[in-house]
Amino acid sequence: MEKLNFDALVVGGGIAGMQSALDIADQGYQVALVEKEASVGGKMIALSKVFPTLDCASCITTPKMSAVAHHKNINIFTYCEVQAVKKSRDGFAAEVLKKPRYVNEDTCTGCRLCEYACPIDLPSAFDLNMGATRTINVPFSTAVPQIAVLDMDNCILCGKCEKACPVEDCIDFTQEPEIFEIEAQSIVLATGFKTTPIDAKQEYGAGKFHNVIDGLMMERLLAPTGPYGRIIRPGDGKEPESIAYVQCAGSRDETLGVEYCSRVCCMYAIKQAMLISGSLPLADITIYYMDIRTFGKGYEQFYQNAKAMGIEFIKGKVAKITEDEDQNPVVRVELIEEGSQVVERTHDLVVLSVGMLPGDNSSPVYHVPIAGDGFVSIPSPNSSPAVTESHGIFVTGTAGGPMDIVDSIISSGDAAVEAAAYIENHKNGKSVPVPAGEEMELVNA
Amino acid sequence: MTRVTENQKPKILILATLSGGYAGADSVGQLHEEYPTNTYILPVISPSMFPEDFYLRSFDRGIDAIIIMYSGTDSPFKGAPEHTAQLINSTYTKMKERGIDTRRLRLTAICTVCTKPFLKEVNQMNEVLDEIGYINDELAVPA
């Protein structure tokens, strides 16, 4: 098995992982960045704009993606997953699975001729199944690296991609998964988050209604690189005239086992509402909320601006969503500030402000304890917010708990400093001895 | 100098990177924005693969202006933006030697969502061409 040696291993190539890798590498340490998807960029590269500045999300993310790819001290390993970690006094040895792309990474130029030649259209995962892509594709236009990946499960082996490819033997249908080992003195977990599934709540249609979407889907509709280039209902292509947001549709909900606040839903709903009012000036936008939580710098002013723009905020927890004969979602809600009357309101499109769940429960692999909410446990969140209960393993971004992009970037710097200090101490023989119980071999659960 | 007319507008070749300028041009189309029809957009992986001679031969063949819409620092290819800048720099020297106005060649960073900058670049180049005219007239004058 091939062995590669680095100072630090960063797991996860989203904004937090990339920033941590850059911050560690800038201090002169060698970093391995492992990402399970075919491109780095994480969730952020799919967003339209960021709050509260309304800066273009890809304009922030793309330079970071290029920076990690070009940094002399960073090696990125995309389409790879850490399967097991061994810990010893010398550091960590991570067993990494390299999934087959069925494309030679060394010779693919990213020309996309294979993609254009492929006859099979599939729902685009990047556009959350709203747009289409091909069985073999470069994941999205700014993907890093620009290397195609073939979805073998949906490939009909017609060979058209192979004929279109200008590079000899670049497409390789016989590629097999490979295992290699990364040795590192420190690990930074940046495994991110996933959103509450849209079908989690029966009361909200359990994902069966075409015109009930979630916040990330609306991000893609709003993004200039989105599937339709404008905001239309996925159900029938109609331009919506009335759009409603249902807050806390996946957070602060004991029935879903998510008792915490996801911290970003209020702000992203307000941001999206403002962007929609720019794209569809005549549309009525309503946000049904339990509480509006605008805790960050400039956030409250952002909320007040949204109200001044005419976005309607209604206090009340939506009890149920049904659908009328025209596929319009019907929202049943108690208007708390209007005598608690229960009404049913029809909208053209409903957006569920789904919450954050732990992205990848990596605890069994890394032997890092997790907290009751499912995120990585941080024993001293006030004094050492990047330090986990396992020596040499640090956490950043939403792997440690729900947070927005600003906080993720801040926490990345924190994790990088902690990791660098640990590496330096380790190199100088000053590292804290590994307790007897922690010297072990761990395998994937 | 032959006057630029509506019937025979000067030709602008745009080299647009797949990861930046070409996606930006696509976004312009998706937004139903209008831009002049005298533009010929060529998707390229990276303009760093095009030698200086390519631009000079394009001018010889009647291309009046070339805009390179590359990805700048966003480029997924290591060293490509720096190499492209060097190539364009040396192309400028060769253009000057041949008496070609260097304003006919422009290197600009356009990202996937740069719709307004895309339109601005095309419109600005047309304004320049309105001022300096066709390439064939310029090449006809001995340097």
Describe the overall structure.
The complex is a heterodimer of chains A (445) and B (143). Chain A has helices spanning 15-25, 57-70, 113-117, 160-164, 215-222, 265-279, 299-308, 363-366, 405-427, and strands at 2-5, 8-11, 31-34, 49-50, 55-56, 74-77, 80-88, 91-98, 121-123, 132-134, 136-137, 149-150, 178-184, 186-189, 193-195, 212-214, 242-246, 284-289, 312-315, 318-323, 329-335, 341-346, 349-352, 356-358, 393-395, 440-441. Chain A is an alpha/beta fold. Chain A folds into three domains: 2-99 and 177-192 and 359-441, FAD/NAD(P)-binding domain, CATH 3.50.50.60; 113-164, no CATH class; 196-355, FAD/NAD(P)-binding domain. In chain A, the strands form eight sheets. Chain A has a five-stranded mixed beta sheet with strand order 1-13-8-7-26, with no helix packed on it. Chain A has a five-stranded parallel beta sheet with strand order 6-3-2-14-25. Chain A has a five-stranded parallel beta sheet with strand order 16-23-17-18-19. In chain A, β9 (121-123) and β10 form a beta hairpin. In chain A, α1 runs parallel beside α9 (405-427), α5 packs parallel to α6 and α6 (265-279) runs parallel beside α7 (299-308). Chain B is an alpha/beta fold. Chain B has helices at 21-30, 52-60, 80-97, 115-132, 135-140, and strands spanning 12-17, 39-44, 65-70, 105-109. Chain B is flat and about 40 Å long.
